Amino acid sequence: KYSGSGVEFCSVCEAGKYNDEKGQSSCSDCEGGFAQPSNSSTSCDACEAGRYQGATGQASCSDCSAGTFSLVGASSCSDCAAGNYSTEGSSSCRRCDAGTYSGSGASTCSACEGGKYNDKKGQSSCTECAGGRAQPLTNATSCKDCELGKHQSATGQALCAVCEPGTYTSL
Asked: pTM of the full predicted structure?
């Protein structure tokens, strides 16, 4: 509570403000990263992990958007690094599974396309299948050798081609 000069009663500090000392003539704004939803408060509460408040004098904190995260008392959210993702209100980012990838600030991981693979977690891209190998499936963690009677000279292919009449492949 606080009062001005010549007043009969003390006024209540509004939400987003506080006063932690006796005999004050005003209330202080909660700093960025903090909020106070109640009136008559003597302190402000730090925003929980996964939430933030960039302005001063606020009554509440907001959830970090998907693809970002924050720690306790944050005034802003940080993007997840490439190879990671998060959902709304996250306090940390999760690594993408093998067979998937993401860029920075991702809310989900994308599957590796046919002809590409990824055999490790937390990757920012997928690797093309080498010549002589192919992968028809998405979300792949490896490529497969072309079967006997089939070949593939290009990289990043989903299928191996059948040898033409008069040609063959062997191990």
From this structure: 0.82
